[in-house]
């Protein structure tokens, strides 16, 4: 199996930097910079609602983030079962589907 494991924070940092957004801008009104730094190196777990606010600050929808995150988990030979709940983006999609069916 050849795939790269990155933490949620490491992927977040990569996306933040690619968008040219500073730490200060990313964590504005959400958390302090030391919390963000620790999260970005994989050393801190943050609450989900805090994470969603951070994503909003860097203008990245959750589904897009989890698609990028998933890309680091997909084996190079693509033999994984894409119907499982292994991927965070699949969980997000199924949650959205459930919400739509309730309405």
What would your notes on this structure say?
This protein is mainly α and 103 residues long. It has one domain (8-102): lambda repressor-like DNA-binding domains (434 Repressor (Amino-terminal Domain)). Helices cover 57% and strands 0% of the residues. It has six helices and no strands. It has helices spanning 8-18, 23-27, 33-40, 48-57, 62-71, 88-102. Helix 5 (62-71) packs antiparallel against helix 6 (88-102). The longest helix is centred in the C-terminal third of the chain and has 15 residues, at 88-102. The N and C termini lie far apart (41 Å).
Using the coordinates shown, work out and report the CATH topology.
434 Repressor (Amino-terminal Domain)
Proportion of residues in extended strands? under 5%
Q: How many domains?
A: 1
Helical/strand content category? mainly alpha
Straight-line N-to-C gap: 41 Å
Q: What characterizes the major β-sheet? A: none
CATH architecture tag:
Orthogonal Bundle
Query: Helix coverage percent of residues?
Result: 55-70%
What is the tally of beta strands?
A: 0
Rg result: 15 Å
Order of helices and strands: HHHHHH
| Count of runs of 4 or more consecutive helical residues | 6
CATH class (first level) name? Mainly Alpha
Give the overall shape. globular
Corresponding CATH superfamily: lambda repressor-like DNA-binding domains
Mean pLDDT: 77
Unreliably modeled segments: 75-87
